[in-house]
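User: Just a sanity check before I run the rest of the batch. Below are the structure tokens for the first item. I only need the designed sequence back.
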């Protein structure tokens, strides 16, 4: 039987300080992808070694900051009531999931931009557990509407519509309101699933 060790008080304080410093730096940076581990360690008042021992790398640190914010959505999708939960008809559920992802990304744009801008092919968003999981779910739901052949590709395209950089561009760069964006996403999902 594995022994679960309780986190030491100083380690818990460091963890909290690091997560808060990272969140603040990403939120206030014009280019979240350029916030470095050195910047985060300095802002948190910890050594860089502590930061790396605790989180491994920058992408993992960002994922852990974001995971706290994503947990309620993940729970609703896995076991919640309609329209996100498993008892929802596939077409309605796909639209609800895309909408919910857009809302979370709009509300947490600084973290998503840092994560999505943060690396090359091996550390990119497409290999993350969250992306793989939601892609698989959408693929299976889309397959019930369009058949298996195109379902994987369509799921990728749907997820591309809620990339943080695109959401930022259309809202901040082009001035689209959040409500107009969400309405456009719903229409796009409907149109996509009709073909």
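Assistant: Here's the designed sequence for the first item:
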């Amino acid at each position: 039987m594995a022994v679960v060790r309780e986190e030491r008080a100083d380690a818990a304080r460091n963890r909290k300080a690091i997560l808060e410093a990272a969140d603040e730096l990403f939120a206030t940076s014009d280019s979240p992808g350029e916030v470095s581990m050195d910047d985060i360690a300095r802002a948190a008042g910890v050594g860089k070694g502590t930061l790396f021992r605790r989180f491994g790398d920058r992408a993992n640190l960002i994922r852990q900051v974001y995971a706290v914010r994503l947990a309620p959505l993940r729970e609703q999708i896995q076991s919640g009531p309609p329209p996100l939960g498993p008892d929802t008809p596939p077409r309605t559920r796909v639209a609800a999931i895309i909408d919910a992802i857009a809302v979370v990304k709009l509300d947490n744009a600084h973290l998503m931009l840092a994560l999505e801008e943060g690396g090359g092919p091996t550390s990119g968003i497409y290999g993350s557990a969250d992306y793989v999981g939601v892609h698989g779910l959408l693929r299976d739901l889309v397959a019930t509407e369009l058949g298996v052949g195109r379902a994987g590709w369509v799921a990728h395209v749907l997820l591309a519509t809620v990339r943080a950089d695109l959401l930022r561009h259309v809202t901040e760069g082009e001035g689209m309101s959040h409500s107009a964006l969400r309405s456009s996403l719903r229409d796009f999902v409907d149109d996509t699933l009709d073909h």
